[in-house]
Write a structure and sequence with these properties.
The chain is α/β, with parallel strands linked by helices and 283 residues long. The chain has nine helices and nine strands. It folds into two domains: 2-172, 3-Layer(aba) Sandwich (Rossmann fold); 185-276, Pantoate--beta-alanine Ligase, Chain: A,domain 2. It has helices at 7-19, 35-44, 74-84, 94-97, 115-119, 123-138, 150-162, 192-213, 219-231, and strands at 2-4, 24-29, 49-54, 88-90, 142-146, 168-172, 236-245, 259-267, 270-278. Helix 6 (123-138) packs across helix 7 (150-162) and helix 8 packs antiparallel against helix 9. It is globular and about 55 Å long. The protein starts with a strand and ends in a 5-residue tail after the last strand. 38% of the residues are buried. The protein binds adenosine monophosphate (AMP). Adenosine monophosphate is lined by residues 29-30, 36-37, 39-40, 145-146, 148-149, 172, 174-175, 182-185.
Amino acid sequence: MQIVKTIKEVREIVTDWKKQGLTIGFVPTMGYLHEGHQSLIKRSTENDRTVVSIFVNPIQFGPNEDFASYPRDLERDTKKCEEAGADLIFAPSDSEMYADDFSTYVDMTGPTDELCGLKRPGHFKGVCTVVSKLFNIVTPDRAYFGQKDAQQLAVIKRMVRDLSIGVEIVGCPIIREADGLAKSSRNTYLSEDERKAAVVISKALETGRKMIENGEKSAETLIAKITELIQSEPLAKIDYIKAVDADSIVPVSNLDGNVLVAAAVYIGKTRLIDNFISEGSEK
Ligand code: AMP
């Protein structure tokens, strides 16, 4: 496995692979890798070569967010990539990605208007811009994104369709800790008490999933129940809980169809997200 820091090096390696007729899978990450990221890398080994990018993208963080404190450890990440079967790590510096006078952005309306898009203004503009750049650099056949960031997955699918980018987007399931908490690089921020409290998010969502399975049709009733369960945890503060169409991210009132139920919750100062997708009840 190789580790490179410049766009030029990635282009040279990828050009060589393409000359050999090899297919390329790509997993964009912000590093501090865990089994969630590794599940994407493992899935990507269905391609002949797998590229992982590790880049904490400054332009997707708001001014009061955790860009400076976001965990970074390239040595640790290198081992995790190797274990999972990656062939190349692209770990650029901020200046390699953004010239001092950088001024071109990819922006979107629609799927970015709700959930994290509403709560984190500019976030998806930063995500779409960096992912577009990374697609242009790596030129993969397929790119792998986690359902953990369900809105991001919908946004990237929309961007690729709208801008006719020749990459197949593959969504991968959420990987969880034994107690149900969705794995996240941000879980490292949690104190022992907060870590115990954080399980309330996945437990409440699981209750919601069962309600739909048992025939619940009202998004309002569902959200009220999930809210009540999360509010019963003193360390938890809800940022949002919403039911939206899984593709368009437009809020729904009826739970039939392809519905994404998504939550963002502060546990202490740490903002965690989780979700599930329901394809409608059977009753
Ligand atoms: P990040 O490093 O947080 O930007 O995440 C990089 C990719 O890994 C994104 O596509 C995430 O959705 C995915 N990912 C993060 N956590 C998980 C998880 N627990 N299960 C599955 N995929 C995940």
